[in-house]
Design goal:
About 65% of the residues lie in helices and about 10% in strands. It is mainly alpha-helical.
C-alpha cells in the first residue's frame, strides 16, 4: 500500500453477511466522488474532542448506519432508521430553538429541513415556512440563503408538484 493517497471503499456483501474494506488509489474513486451526493462528513476536529473509543464508535456507527440505509438485508445490529429519525427530530428541535434567538445559520438549515419535510410529508405549510426562512437568511446576508432565494421560485414549484402528486396518490 505504499505510494500516493489512498481511499477506503466499504462494501456490504448482503448475501455473505460480510462487510468488506478495500484500500485503493484515490484517483480510482474520483468518478464516484464526483457523481454521488456530497458524502457523509465527520470533521476530524469533532472526533478529537471525544475519547479515542468514542471517536472510533462514532465512525463505526456512522458506517453501519449508512450501510443499513441502502441494504435490502439489514445488518440487524441496531434499528438505524429509527435512530436516524430520532436524531432528525432532535436536530430540528435544536434548529427551532436557535432560530428563535435569531441564529441566521440555523434559519438557513431549518429552511433546508422544512423543504425536505414538505416533499416527504406532502406539507404545503412546511414549504411556505421554508421559503420564509430562506428569505430571512438572505435578508441577513447569508450567502447560501441568498442563492436559495434566487432559486426559490423553481424549488417551490418543483416541490409543489411533488406535494400535489403525493397528496393525490
Amino acid at each position: 500500500m505504499a505510494g500516493g493517497k489512498r481511499d477506503l471503499v466499504v462494501h456490504y456483501d448482503e448475501a455473505r453477511q460480510e462487510i468488506v474494506f478495500y484500500s485503493t488509489d484515490s484517483s480510482k474513486t474520483e468518478a464516484i466522488r464526483a457523481a454521488e451526493f456530497g458524502g457523509c462528513r465527520i470533521r476530524v476536529s469533532h472526533l478529537k474532542e471525544k475519547s479515542p473509543s468514542d471517536a472510533e464508535q462514532t465512525v463505526g456507527g456512522t458506517v453501519l448506519a449508512i450501510l443499513d440505509q441502502a441494504a435490502t438485508a439489514k445488518t440487524g445490529i441496531r434499528d438505524y432508521a429509527a435512530e436516524a429519525e430520532k436524531a432528525a427530530v432532535e436536530h430540528r428541535a435544536m434548529l427551532e430553538r436557535q432560530v428563535q434567538v435569531g441564529d441566521v445559520e440555523a434559519s438557513y438549515h431549518l429552511a433546508i429541513e422544512l423543504h425536505y419535510s414538505a416533499i416527504k410529508h406532502g406539507s404545503a405549510a412546511d414549504l411556505e415556512r421554508a421559503g420564509a426562512l430562506f428569505d430571512a437568511a438572505a435578508r441577513a446576508g447569508h450567502p447560501d440563503g441568498i442563492r436559495a432565494t434566487e432559486n426559490w421560485p423553481d424549488m417551490r414549484d418543483s416541490a409543489l408538484r411533488l406535494i400535489q402528486r403525493r397528496n393525490r396518490g
